[in-house]
Amino acid sequence: MVDSRCFSFPAPEFYRNMCLILLAYDRRSVRPLVIAANRDEFYARPAHAARYWDGAPHVFGGRDLEAGGTWLGVSTGGRFAALTNYTDFDLPVTPAASRGDLTRGFLEGNQSALSYAEAVDGTRYQGFNLIVFDGEDLVYASNRTGDVRTLDSGVYGLTNTWLGDEWPKTKHGTAALSRIAADGDADAVLELMLEESEGYLADGHEIE
Q: Domains of the chain by range and CATH?
């Protein structure tokens, strides 16, 4: 079952240049995936808030009106996809395909999570982290680390570096999500994201 309640709030200025995705995954549970996410994006780039998509009414999520993709979405069939940009200042920015196509392609299709991630041509895109879930398997892929792997049950935090990089806010967020995931309380998840947005600088350091 998908809880489609979505919340939008302006993050504080110091928090606006880092994304955060928290995931609690238990493939044996009746509620196998609990997600909390904050997306940093340019306000000047046109986008729709979360809604069912024209042309793909089984998909629910925000939509980039410039390229047509999304940063996070779900489908009525229980599929989920999300991505963050991978920040790598050592590599030049070059023209590339929109990373939002990665999530859109998975949500609109029917491939398994692993086969979809393995088929992605990472050379076509700027740096990305991609999370896809097909109702059973949760898969992580990145064209900067070279990872394509099925994740074990557990709690994960992802920002704009590799999965498993322990920034203070990912450590705090995963610990908090572990405590509330079993209840599946959407309001508690929202409160968690509000707390996460109030206590850390963009570089991940806690405000004293």
A: 13-198 (3.60.60.10)
